[in-house]
Amino acid sequence: MADSKLQARDPKIYEALKNELQRQREGLEMIPSENFTSLAVMEAMGSVLTNKYSEGYPSHRYYGGNHFIDVVEQTAIDRAKELFKVPHANVQAYSGSPANLAVYLATCKPGDVIMGMNLTDGGHLTHGWKTSVTGQIFKSVPYHVKADGYIDIEEARKLAQENKPKLIWVGCTAYTREFPFKEFAEIADSVGAYLAADISHIAGLVVAGAHESPKDYAHVIMTTTHKTMRGPRGALIMVTEKGMRKDPELGEKINKTIFPGMQGGPHENVIAGIATALLEASTPDFREYGQQIVRNAKALASSLMANGMKLVTDGTVNHMVLIDLTPLGKGKGAFAEYALEVAGITVNKNTIPKEPASPFYPSGVRLGTPALTTRGMREQEMNQIGRIIAEACNEIKYYSMPENKEERSAYLAKFRDEAGKNPKLQALKKEVIELCAKFPLYPDLGS
Ligand code: DSN
């Protein structure tokens, strides 16, 4: 990070930034919702565009001086429409959760029935979970996965017939199979509901042709832009041809819900980064990238299973793998997450279908390949990483969460202390650092 103005002005923040760069370089980022943007995207974000207010939409602004801002935002809109083959796109939502709230407010009234996948089955907070405002201002009827980890379509169909929802969500944050867009379109159409596809996790796969697109099935598509899309943190809300047929004003309603309904000035520096990420996503290289994410995830899944790990749905067809740790005991997710962190691998603890413990101390870990694929890793490395993960998880087998809740944090603190000194985890960390060194991250940023 040569010639840094930040270093001179704010050494404390500079130091944290430098340390974070080193952490990303030396470790394996395997949280499936994380990725590494290009330096071009970062340049667009860290630009003079951050200085400008531009409430409104291109050519209809409440502030002067937006000529160039209009170019930026209109370019992002046009690229989103082109890439996802939809007639309407809004690029202003600050991130996925406000984007989803805008979808609700444009299609439902408070108190209406909505349906989404249950959080602990792999759904998202904003699809109607009780602690989210979406589960409080709407009447949420969640559907679930079956014991085998696949979405229970028949349950969803029955619940829709019984409850007549106004809006149904299809899309998940912890699901390793194809999202069943066609089946949910049939369910939504049979009760006259809007179908919203939240493809935040898989948007890059959709663009790359590695997952079916929801454009012919859903009325609205929402995606964040920073996961498999590899852009900055933001969101797109898109209306499909089908959505326009159901309500020709739906695009306008979504725009009005975002501004002035929910947000003020859009973050045009981020929108510029989104535009650049959309351009990158339209290239043959990105198509290959998306396909490789899936090949890598499948290779990782095979390696994990060959090394004795149990996986939800026994594998994956997307970017993600969900390890079921119950063969080692229930509630082991937090132990595995920390043991892997000591070994230089970042994942997140996660619930598994029919979770036997709790969302805070769940029995699984969720991991994925988008960031490692950006780094250039391939099946051979996935094979090695699967073995490393299995060996790290083996180190937690003698730990189990106390039944007494009062004892849990002290027990975890003791575990962390011991894991930090564990020689096997230290050896694995060394192996991880050596592997990462073969795939340099952001070499242009220097040391
Ligand atoms: N936090 C995101 C994820 O990790 O999947 C969802 O919002």
Describe the structure.
The protein contains 18 helices and 15 strands. It folds into two domains: 44-281, Type I PLP-dependent aspartate aminotransferase-like (Major domain) (Aspartate Aminotransferase, domain 2); 292-445, Aspartate Aminotransferase, domain 1 (Alpha-Beta Complex), CATH 3.90.1150.10. Helix 5 packs across helix 11 and helix 13 packs parallel to helix 16 (379-394). A seven-stranded mixed β-sheet has the order 4-10-9-8-7-5-6, sandwiched between helices. It has a four-stranded antiparallel β-sheet with strand order 11-12-15-14. Strands 1-13 form a two-stranded parallel sheet. It is an alpha/beta fold and 447 residues long. The structure holds D-serine (DSN). D-serine binds next to loops.
Strand percent estimate = 5-15%
Shape: globular
In the sheet with the most strands, the strands line up as: 4-10-9-8-7-5-6
* Percent of residues in helices: 40-55%
Question: Which second-level CATH architecture of the largest domain applies?
Answer: 3-Layer(aba) Sandwich
Count of DSSP E strands? Answer: 15
CATH level-4 homologous superfamily of the largest domain: Type I PLP-dependent aspartate aminotransferase-like (Major domain)
